[in-house]
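Sat 14:20. Reprocessing the chain from the morning session after the first attempt stalled halfway. Input below, unchanged.
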Amino acid sequence: MTDVLHPAVAGPQAIDLRLRIYRMMVEMRDFEKRAYDLFLQGLVKGTSHLGLGQEAVAAGFGAAMRPEDYTFATYRGHNHTLARGVPMAPVMAELMGREAGLMAGKGGSMHLTSVAHRMMGSYAIVGAHLTIANGAAWSSKLRGTSEVTVCFFGDGTTNIGAFHEALNLAAVWQLPVVFVCENNRWMEYTPIGSVTAVQHPAGDRAPAYGLAPVVIDGNDADATYAAAAAAIERARGGGGPSLIEAETYRHGGHSRADPGKYRPESEVASWLARDPLPLYRRRLLDAGVSEQVLASVEEASRQAVDEATELAAASPPPDLSLVEKDVFADGGSAWRR
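Finished this time. Tokens:
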């Protein structure tokens, strides 16, 4: 575990960057809190999985990535989608099953995708996207471009075969890919430690594939940005893949139908005390950012969420004519008949 900050977040010139990171975290938190409220009102369709408490990981990496880089995420992908600059309104509309959604309301929370923003999908099958991320990274290497692929997954994925297959091939081919394990301690209802032979499910396995064992505080946005910037820079320069384990914690249960009562109260309380947003807010105040500036960031976020909610709610459900749209690569299915 490293305590060395990337130069970009270590000096007085870094205030703009750190405010950008804070802005992203606040918007992620406000967006998901609103999504939860809409779920309780019956306006969010299907299941969804919130990343409340895990914002520092998505924001830190989002700030370190270039627009041309690729993101692959799990079904807990709202934060990673917003981190790539996807507007709130179409994301909210997708959660609500409306035509103005990213996929016209047909995908829902677990399948957020915006190719225009290089957000290459949220994947519901655990571990499936790691091998697909390798494909994107291999494409960049084959074409000789500078794109880097960043692939996020949970701690439970480290016990899936695709995790080991993807790590091995990425190392053998020296692919420009960064694998990020968001270790929130619980693989749905089972503590990861009860079914894993090593303490750090990702970090302790990295050396088996010739990679450095990088374990960071995933609730510290500066530490996350530093690790992200270093790994992405390494990949972009031809240094091959990295595996980063970010230790974090989801504030709620696995999904919004899960109250999470199986978790020890003392554990939940200790992690809530390490909430990444108030931690980073205090750090910005200590760095000389005024209360007024932070309050304006927070007010702007609330207004943006309100506007996104209104726009999403005003959109109709998808028309039945859209059922065969975007089914195949050419956009439809008529050619198969």
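The chain has a mean pLDDT of 93.
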